Amino acid sequence: MAAAKIFDILLEHEQFSNERLRRRAICKRILVLLKIAVFLAAWAFFTLFIVLKAPETTNERLISLQPNKSYSVNMDVDPSGRFVCLKLKGNIDVIRTQNAQGNHASDTHVDVTLESFTVGSNKTLWKSSVWSVYMVDAAPYSTNTVKKMINVVDWNKNQSAEKSQRAGDGDGDGDVDMKVSLINMSNKPAGVSLMIVPDPVDPRLGTWLGCLLLVFLYALIAFEIADRAFAAILVSITALGMLSMMDLRPSFPHIISWIDIDTLMLLFGMMVMVAILSDTGLFDVLSLFAYRLSNGKIWLLLFYLYMFTGLLSALLDNVTMVLMIVPVTVRLCEAVGLHTTLVVINIVIFSNVGGALTPVGDPPNMIIATNKDVIASGVNFGNFTLHMFPGVIVSMMIVFGIMYFITRNKIYTGRASQLRHSIEELEKLLRNMKDKQRESAMRRLSDLRERLKGHENNTTSANKDFDSNLNDMKRKYRIRDKVLLVKCIVAFTFAVSMFLLHSVPSMHGISLAWAAVLAAILLLILADLPDLDKVLSRVEWDTLIFFAALFILTEALVEIGLIDTVSNLVIDYVVSVDKGSQLLVSIMLVLWISAIGAAFIGNIPITTMMLKITIRLGNNERLNLPMQPLVWAMAFGACFGGNGTLIGASANVVSAGIANQYGHQIDFKSFFIIGFPIMLLTVVIAGIYLVIVHCLFTWH
Fold first, then answer.
1. Primary place of residence (predicted)?
2. Which of 5, 251, 331, 554 could form a disulfide with 605 if both were Cys (CB 3.0 to 4.6 A apart)?
3. Max Cα separation, the chain?
4. How far apart are CA 103 and CA 566, in angstroms?
């Protein structure tokens, strides 16, 4: 009887489990169908408007303005919305134009107004406030673009009543048109290009649409609904569909111009070199060296690894650093039985923190340090590094202490499941590999299977003593191709030399991107590889596509108006606070907006946006703020903020791609759980440091 009862219980439990699995399968199927429906709706939306709407025509008018003379351009279409957008291109001083209050009437400038007038008598019925556009007096000639959103709500309210009244009075001047008037207020001729957008995107609508796009992107990535590269492509094309809906569809060449080719070239060049370098066995030998140096003490080993990554990221850019150090880290963790994904995430965090130290350490710093207005404020390689040094070093030490207490137990857990997952991922990759690409992957797969077997027999590397681990690593890890290694050293030496020379003012032709590409070509020549496919197959193409799509999305958000709205809100708020608190408020706003924006938009796009805001704050005559503290705040925010999410920094995405090649998946959630609290901590440290040295004291 007892046996029968037990049998009934087991049968009932099995039926319950099967029912639960069936329901789970149904729910999963429903979610898949829902995802496809949402994606199809997005596809139908942007396809409809991209097919129906032609690319926006510029309608630019080249205007030659004689001294103290006026020029008028009639609008072809009356505005139907709240705003009219005017764009002027020419030898324009953007800073003085944005801060017109501090300029003198005698400075070279053009006064621009929007007016409505009667066609017959040319009588002015309505006139906007004057927009003063200041020109650059001296050479060299540089083309800059400024734009102005002019509110025409008052004109819209009155125009119908005015037309009706004049028609009822029998006035023959009933037709009303609008024109743009330009007056050259100097004694020198000036030339500008004028573009009139009669119905631009309403800033309020643009802000909501921009936020909606960002939420959509992060929902797709954070909940792993779609691959991050595909998610970025889908959302960026949806943004282009929105622009098309608003009659602002950009041309294809214009869209391509939004992509930061320099960043993609830098990544591509370094990926090619690291792919070739991995065949030499150097990464295996470096992991052996690091383990020997630590004498088997795991946390001493991790301390060396983290600090080495952080400090070297300051000399190289951190993307290059993670391309080289992540393969070493993966091999080392597998050899000594550590949680690989956890250690790789920590490595990336230290690369972002350490990369903040110098102008060449992180892409946002490169963007900041090469800006002409930042250079004009007195920022150079030396004082940039000096001002960032205390905040970076203190942050690295505190972060290591926090990581020790948070991960000291987790670092050894989940080893068996991690090995099984790595084996499964490698087996999937092997199915798609060509025969000539399978050798190294098969060797690695065999090694992982051996480690899993040892773990199940309780003889993992984590349980062995130091000498046993060291002998095992010596047997397996060695240089496989010494000649190729020498060739790689030559190419990497060239690349690093060019990176360092990039900061020398006289070396104008060297960019980080060209240095990486030229070094990659040099290595391809020296290596004399019979088959280029083997190298190109290891390039993280999905990472490059992800960044390209993200650049397009960011510029689309600029066109929609989200970026301008944020900029205006920041400046208006700083102007409204007490004079004695404006520097403190400006530093905190720049720091935290840069950090949060870097985490959720990406530190390269947010740096481009915040650089404009910072320059406007630093050059605002009403505020009279020093530029340099704002520059340091922006650098700290962008670099430290990149640790907040998986897509916050280039190094994060690149590291996740490399780890995936080795069978270790780093998803949005696992990175966010560790990275976001560390990001908040380091930004708080940077904020305290900046307040002490620039508000309590005046180091600047």
1. membrane
2. 554
3. 111
4. 25
Give the burial class of 642: count Cβ atoms within 10 A of its Cβ; 0-12 exposed, 13-18 middle, 19 or more buried: buried
pLDDT at 389: 94
Between 222 and 693, residue with greater pLDDT: 693
Between the CA atoms of 175, 178, 184 and 190, what dihedral angle is there, to the nearest 10 degrees?
-120
pLDDT grade for 174, boundaries at 50, 70 and 90: low
The pLDDT, as a whole number, for residue 465 is 65
∠ CA 194-255-257, nearest 5°, is 80
DSSP 342-367: HHHHHHHHHHHHHHTTSTTSSHHHHH
Cα→Cα distances 371→270, 385, 502, 612, Å: 24, 16, 14, 10
pLDDT tens readout for residues 179-189: 899 999 888 88
Closest C-alpha among 652, 633, 657 to residue 642: 652
CB 594 within 8 A of CB 644: no
- Do the Cβ atoms of 110 and 54 come closer than 8 Å? no
d(CA 119, CA 116): 9
Residue-by-residue DSSP string for 542-563: HHHHHHHHHHHHHHHHHHHTHH
The token duo for 269 is 């060049």
Locate the domains of the chain by residue range. 61-200, 263-360+391-536, 562-696
Looking at per-residue confidence, does 285 or 162 come out higher? 285
CB 474 within 8 Å of CB 288? yes
Residue 312 pLDDT greater than 50, yes or no: yes
Mapped to the 3 state alphabet, what secondary structure does 95-119 carry?
A: HHHHCHHHCCCCCCEEEEEEEEEEC
End-to-end CA distance of the chain: 87
**Cα gap 665→659, rounded to integer Å:** 6
Do 316 and 499 touch, CB atoms closer than 8 A? yes
Residue pair 294/332 in contact (Cβ under 8 Å)? The answer is no
Which of left, alpha, beta for 414 (phi over 0: left; psi -120 to 50: alpha)?
left
- Min mean pLDDT across 316-320, 448-452, 674-678 is at 448-452
Residue matched to tokens 């005017």: 86
What pLDDT sits at residue 460? 43
The fraction of the chain above a pLDDT of 70, given in percent, is: 83
**Can you list the alpha helix ranges (DSSP code H) found in 577-602?**
582-600
Q: pLDDT band at 653, cuts 50/70/90? A: confident
Asked which of 56-60, 254-258, 543-547, 622-626 is least confident by mean pLDDT, the reply is 56-60
- Angle 612-617-618 from CA coordinates, rounded to 5°: 100
Q: pLDDT at position 667, please?
A: 84
Q: Encoding tokens for residue 99?
A: 């801060």
Please report the DSSP string for 458-477 in residue order.
T--TTTS-HHHHHHHHHHH-
Length of the chain: 700
**Integer Cα distance of 344 and 664 in angstroms:** 10
Q: State the CATH architecture for 61-200.
A: Sandwich (2.60)
Cα angle for residues 580, 581, 584 (degrees, 5° grid):
130
Is the N-terminal amide bond of 140 cis, ω within 30° of 0? yes
**Geometric angle at alpha carbon 540, from 477 and 224, rounded to 5°:** 105
pLDDT in tens, 50-68: 998 888 766 788 888 888 8
Provide the H-helix boundaries in 502-644. 512-527, 533-536, 541-560, 562-576, 582-600, 603-618, 627-641
